[in-house]
Structures are given as C-alpha cells and as structure tokens.
Amino acid sequence: MTGRLTAATQLPDGVAGPGYDPQAHGSGIVHLGLGAFHKAHQAVYTDDALAASGGDWRITGVSLRSATAAQELAPQDCRYAVLERSVDGTRARVIGALAAALALSRDRAAVLAALRAPATRIVSLTVTEKAYGIDRAGGGIDRAHPAIAADLADPRHPQGVAGLLVRALADRRAAGVPPFTVLCCDNLPENGRMLRALLVDFARATLPKLADHIACDVAFPSTMVDRITPARGAGTLALAQRMLGVHDAAAVETEAFRQWVVEDRFPTGRPAWQAGGAIFVDDVRPYEALKLRMLNGAHSLLAYAGFLAGHALVRDVMGDAALAALVARHMAAAAATLDPVPGVDPDTYADDLLKRFANPHLAHETWQIAMDGTEKLPQRIWAPACDALRAGQPLDSFAFATAAWMRYALGRADDGTSYELRDPREQALRQRLAGAASAGDIADRLLALPDLIPAPLAGDPGWRAAVVSRLSVMLTDGMAAAIAGEPR
C-alpha cells in the first residue's frame, strides 16, 4: 500500500485541495457528531467559506461515542477526500476545514476545553434523531433515555448532548464568556427550537439558574440540510486511493447535489457559508417540511418496502418500475400537504429527487435508511398524514408506508430470514408484537404504542382500515405482491 493522505500530500491533477492555507485559520466551530454526513456537508460549506472569506472558522470535530473517526483523521492532519458521484463521473476534493478530531470517550478534557474556549462561537450537531433524548409528548427531556439519565445522575461528567451543552454553557457564563450559537443540523422539525426546549428542560433539572439564560441569551437557529451520503464501504476507500494515489482512511462518498437552508441568527458571527451556496432565511420551516415530507418520507417508504422486496440499495428500488411509481406517488401526496415554499416548484423538486435516488454510482443501503423508524416516521410520515386526514386528501401512500414499517418491525423477511431493527425502541416493539399474527392485531398493537402515532390518526377507523388492508397483503402474499397491487 502507498502512503497515507496528509497535509503534505501532493495531490494529483484533477483533485482539488483547500483553496486557502488551513494553518492560517483557527478553530471557531465545535461540531458534535463527526460522521460521514458532516464531512460531506457542513465541513464542505465551511471549506468553501474559508476559501472565499477566510476567518477563524475551522472545525473541531467530536465523536460522542466511537473513537474511530478521530483515529482515522488524526494521522492525516484531519484531511480527507469527498468523492462526489454523479452520472457524469466522480470528482474528488480534499477538505481542510477540520482542525482537530476528538472522541468524548478518550478526549473529555479537550472536548470541554474546546466548548469553553472564547474562540468557539458555534456548536453544530449531526448526532441523529435518537441521540438527543427528546420526550416526544412534552418536548423536553426523556428521563428514560440512557444519556439523559446518566447526565441527570452525574451532570459534572456529561455523556450526552444535553448534558454536554448545558455544562459548557454554564462554564462559559461563569467565566464571563458569551454563549456560543447552537446549530442543530439533524432531520427534526424546527430543530433549533427543539434543541432549545431540550436544553432549557435539562438545565431546570440540574442548574435551574441557567435555564433562563439558555432560553433568552443563546441563539438556536433552525436549519434544513440535504445531501445523500451513504455509509462508507470498502469500495469508497478503494476509489479514494485510485483517485488520490495514497490511502485515505477517512474518505466519504456522496452525491454532487447539496443544500443548506439556515435561519440567519448568529449573534457572534458565522462563516460565509453562502460562498458554498447556503441559503439564509428568516424562517426555515417551509423548507424543512418540504425536505422531511418529500425526500425523507419517500426515503422511508422505499427503505421498508424495498428492503422487504429484496432491494439492498436505493438505486435498485428505482430500477423496480412498480416500486419507483409508488415513490413518485408518495412525493405527490406529501407535496399536497405543504404550504408554498419560496422559489420551489414541487413537481420539479420531485422530479429532481427521483433522479437523485436513481444515481447509479451511490450504494445507499435501504437497511441503513430503515433504522430508527420510531424516531423518523413521526415527522416524515405521520405528520403529513395527519394534515392529509384533516384536509380530506387521500391517505393511500401514508397508509402503505406505515404498513411497510409495521411489516418491517416484525424483524423477519418474507423468506423467514431475521434481521435487527436497529431502532431505539426495538425491545418495546418486539415485546408488543410477541404473539401477534393477524394484520389487525399487529396494527392495533403498534397504533397503541405510546408517544408514537398521533392520536387523531391512530384513532381514525378509515386510517386503520387502510393500514390493515395493506399489511394483510404484505403478510399473506409478500411485499412484492403488495407493491404490485397498489394504485399508482
């Protein structure tokens, strides 16, 4: 094997490097959740901003659980390649925006020091929906969530998002340092407002005098992020080595498309992310609903139905004409529940999504998308379904997606093969479904699961009938037959 990618690597022709001297810029952002999506999205926008306008805006990346990302990046001077895959080919680009890569499990003191540092003006997050510990019913903390429970018991040594941020904000206030802006970049509705409510509630339980400071003095702009980024595989690393001529243990592959819509509320400043195409708005909610319902909702439908129909990858789903038609139908149903979005034509947006899903060069696994369904489906499927119910619009696609999730929740494929659900409520799902056999019994048990499916939907007889009829076909005839039998 050849050498390892570092800051000193001479990149081959056709591979772009940072358009600035990374060492001339300090860190001004701490990012929690140092995964592939951050490396393909926010870090790329920051790389563009540094090239265009400079500033001390490099990123200290933090993994809250595994130390793998930090171990991959540290020997490479935190450099890594983003491989942009499109029908026109692959473009490689080496990113220099990361200044440091830390893991909370081994670098706790350094993580807390970075969060306390006056130079840190933004803390951004991509930790996935399940990591926050949100009480879905009340909007505050879920005291049964493992990280929340641990941090309530020992707030001086935080493990989770709420405990870590509240501790850092308390330390900054005690030192007379202004609070950082908290920038949630996960797929949650009104994610900034959600995170504010979470931290305020956690502070009330641990540091009551800090709660009003967080509620009134800390900025929590909401965001909408979009870039399809599959989990990295061996093929990613092999492609990176062919294109770079050296080994890159931290390479990521993604699509060429990217989008970032951000509420422009940054009291202590921000990078010039608009240089990379970021859109700054007063209210992100219309864009957020568009993406959650049309892209993410369709992704969930195709993940459950596609996985059970034997399609391992999204591109395979889009090659199945019957299932691809249901994906398009779902986008139209979701679009009907939306308010107008400035500058966006829903039909054009849907057409572009279908092309992105069909990208032949992205190996995006349906099983990856299917994980954490109890965290994702409330905003992706059931919120628009509630709106459709109120408006008297067809519920077919939402009912099909729900039935597909219920079928998936049984944990066995049509051929009897078992699989892990990879859901934070997996144990509760399995316990509730134990002994259930008929479609009606399965549906009733899951419709009654606390704090999941909204009551107006779960209690509607027409909705139940629509779900049960589809689930019955899936159970008796298989997923492929259920797909074929759906109206287009």
From TrEMBL:
Keyword Lipid biosynthesis in annotation: no
Entry's Gene Ontology molecular function annotations: oxidoreductase activity, acting on the CH-OH group of donors, NAD or NADP as acceptor
SUPFAM superfamilies to which the protein is assigned, alphabetical: 6-phosphogluconate dehydrogenase C-terminal domain-like, NAD(P)-binding Rossmann-fold domains
Residues spanning the membrane: none
Domain of life: Bacteria
Residues in Mannitol dehydrogenase C-terminal domain copies: 283-435
Alphabetized Gene3D superfamilies for the sequence: N-(1-d-carboxylethyl)-l-norvaline Dehydrogenase, domain 2 (1.10.1040.10), NAD(P)-binding Rossmann-like Domain (3.40.50.720)
Record-level GO BP terms: mannitol metabolic process
Pfam families registered for this protein in UniProt: Mannitol_dh, Mannitol_dh_C
Keyword NAD: yes
Keywords noted in UniProt: NAD, Oxidoreductase
Mannitol dehydrogenase N-terminal domain residues: 28-274
InterPro entries reported for this sequence: 6-PGluconate_DH-like_C_sf, 6PGD_dom2, Mannitol_DH, Mannitol_DH/Oxidoreductase, Mannitol_DH_C, Mannitol_DH_CS, Mannitol_DH_N, NAD(P)-bd_dom_sf
Name this polypeptide is given: Mannitol dehydrogenase family protein
Taxonomic source organism: Halovulum marinum
